[in-house]
Amino acid sequence: DWSSDVCSSDLDMFTIEQSKQMGIWPPSDIVAHGVFPYIKRLKEENLRILDVGVMKGENAYYMLSLDEKKKIKKIYGVISQSEGDPNDYEPVLKKNINGQDRFSLNYTNQQCNVICINAHSDIYNNLKKYYPLLKHNGIFCGNEHHLTHVKEALSKFRREVKIGTPIMVSNGCWMWYKR
User: Fold this and answer.
1) pTM of the predicted structure, to 2 decimals
2) How far is residue 18's CA from residue 13's CA, in Å, rounded to a whole number?
3) How many C-beta atoms lie closer than 10 Å to residue 169's C-beta?
4) How many CA atoms lie within 13 Å of 163's alpha carbon, on the beta-carbon side?
5) d(CA 98, CA 31)
């Protein structure tokens, strides 16, 4: 039984269902906490969202659970090499997204309305790689703005690409609209 020895369990490997049973769902550091109110305000319907550094799929799962009006057509998850060994958490990811027909790991570089970059992915290289795939007026966002490596990567990237749009911070998440 997974719950018999919580002290020695790795909380990072809990499924969403297990986290709910433990009373630790949703996690406080996912992008959805800060960005979802802004996603709801996007005028476009049939939104495509890219979640880079998807790990266990918690951010995608939470956004889909909040999407009462079904504005989100598809959330694509991309596993980042810097997240660790995918074999460790891929079984948890599959349990978490089981039955979620609006989630897919089959992303093929299409334009998206929202791109979320996880702070524990290769953030600077992911900023460079995925920003060109964000639609005009789309939201570029990520989590854990308080971390030094996140602020440094954002500053460096924004300087290089000459982005003047201000960064907004909401519930620890950073974001800006692509103009």
Assistant:
1) 0.90
2) 10
3) 12
4) 20
5) 21
Cα separation, 153 vs 82, in Å, equals 15
Sign of CA dihedral 123, 124, 125, 129: positive
Enumerate the β-bridge partners of residue 141: 116, 175
Distance from C-alpha of 114 to C-alpha of 52, rounded to nearest angstrom: 11
124 in helix, strand or coil?
helix
CA–CA gap between residue 97 and residue 152 (Å, rounded):
32
In angstroms, the first-to-last Cα distance of the chain is: 51
pLDDT in tens, 58-95: 999 999 999 999 999 999 999 877 766 777 778 889 89
Task: Identify whether the C-beta of residue 75 lies closer than 8 Å to the C-beta of residue 156.
Answer: no
Express each pLDDT in 85-135 by its tens digit: 777 778 889 899 888 899 999 999 999 999 999 998 899 999 999 999 999
Give the 3-state secondary structure of residue 137.
strand
Residue the block writes with tokens 């334009």: 111
Residue by residue, DSSP assigns 45-58 as SSEEEEEET-TTSH
Q: Which helix (H) or strand (E) holds 74?
A: strand 72-78
Q: Are 143 and 173 in contact (CB under 8 A)?
A: yes
- Tell me, what amino acid is at 98? N
Cα separation of 8 and 159, whole Å? Answer: 44
